[in-house]
Amino acid sequence: MDESSLAKRAQQPVNLTKPVAEAEIRASDADRDRIAEILREALAVGRLDAEEHAERIDLVYRAKTMGELEPLVRDLPAEDGGPRRQPASAAYGDGPGAAPPDQAMVAIFSASTRKGRWRVPGRINAVAVFGSVEIDLTEGIFQQQQVQINVTAIFGSVEIRVPENVTLRSSGSGVLGAFEVATNESVEGDAPIVQVNGYAVLGSVEAKARRGKWLRDLRDDLRGARRTWQEQRRDERRAIHEQRRDERRERHGRLHGERWD
Q1: pLDDT tens by residue, 45-94
Q2: What is the pLDDT of residues 42-55, one digit of tens each?
Q3: What is the model's pLDDT at position 23?
Q4: Poorest-confidence range of 87-91, 115-119, 196-200, 242-246?
Q5: H or E element in which residue 30 lies
Q6: How many whole angstroms separate alpha carbon 181 and alpha carbon 6?
Q7: Pair 124, 150: CB distance under 8 Å
Q8: Labelling 182: which of 4, 66, 110, 195 has CA 20 to 30 A away?
């Protein structure tokens, strides 16, 4: 599939009234990583040369849908050596690219924190009893649009931070406590939606967007780092290939010289 085909497909209007075909489902970062790993293996065993590998990797990280990803490995065998079967999309279901299972964060006379680069599940249950829970989604990898956070704060605190361009909604209350959610509606139609539910009893719940943290910027940074890593791996493999070729030539030269002697 060439770049012009990808561009034409991207320009086609989307009919929101009919079910989305499997090939039209949006690809996640995990889906792209899965395809990139298949291409890396194909390069390692010689099924693809360096130029073909570079071309396909470039298309992998430009792809928006599963239908654009799968043709890039259609001519490569599966892990068992047999023909590759068309996998079901993992953007919103089970499989390698699926979101992780529900997670629980409990702090009883203690503290529980989750932050940094992590895969955000569809549901998080946070309980703080005479303790504190911190949930930082500003660098999280969202593999589904809907994320629900259920909080219970009893003589404790729960603090939630999201990227600035993520929709933040709430349905909760405080009983002799504070339940403060700075709701935010993203202007991006496909932005993740974080729903905070629960209550605070003689405790506090606070959720708001962290200014200066944009989900799009984080994705671009991740793709840039991944592309740099891919280029380094390609250069390393090319150097190894050239080294082995020189060694074979040297052995051939020595053998040829010995025969003449």
Answers
A1: 888 888 888 888 888 888 888 888 888 888 887 654 544 544 433 333 33
A2: 888 888 888 888 88
A3: 65
A4: 87-91
A5: helix 29-44
A6: 41
A7: yes
A8: 110
The neighbouring-strand residues paired with 113 are: 134
Closest CA to 210 of 255, 165, 241, 180: 165
The pLDDT value given to residue 150: 93
Backbone angles phi, psi at 198, to 5 degrees: 140, -155
Distance CA 84, CA 47 (A): 15
Q: Provide the CA 73 distance to its chain's centre, in angstroms.
A: 19
CA-CA distances (angstroms) from residue 39 to 2, 96, 173, 178? 17, 16, 51, 52
What pLDDT is recorded for position 259? 58
- 96 near 74, Cβ under 8 Å? no
In 10 A of CB 156, how many CB atoms? 27
Sign of CA dihedral 70, 74, 80, 86: positive
**Which amino acid does the sequence have at 203?**
G
> What integer best gives the mean pLDDT of the chain?
76
Nearest-angstrom CA–CA distance, 79 and 111: 43
Q: In a 10 Å sphere around its CB, with 0-12 CB exposed, 13-18 middle and 19+ buried, how is residue 224 labelled?
A: exposed
Rounded Cα–Cα distance for residues 204 and 132 (Å) = 9
Structure tokens that stand for 118 in this block: 């992590």
Rg of the chain over Cα atoms, rounded to whole angstroms, equals: 25
C-alpha–C-alpha distance, residues 68 and 79, integer Å: 21
**37: nearest Cα among 211, 215, 230:** 230
Q: At what angle do helices 215-260 and 50-60 cross, to 10 degrees?
A: 170
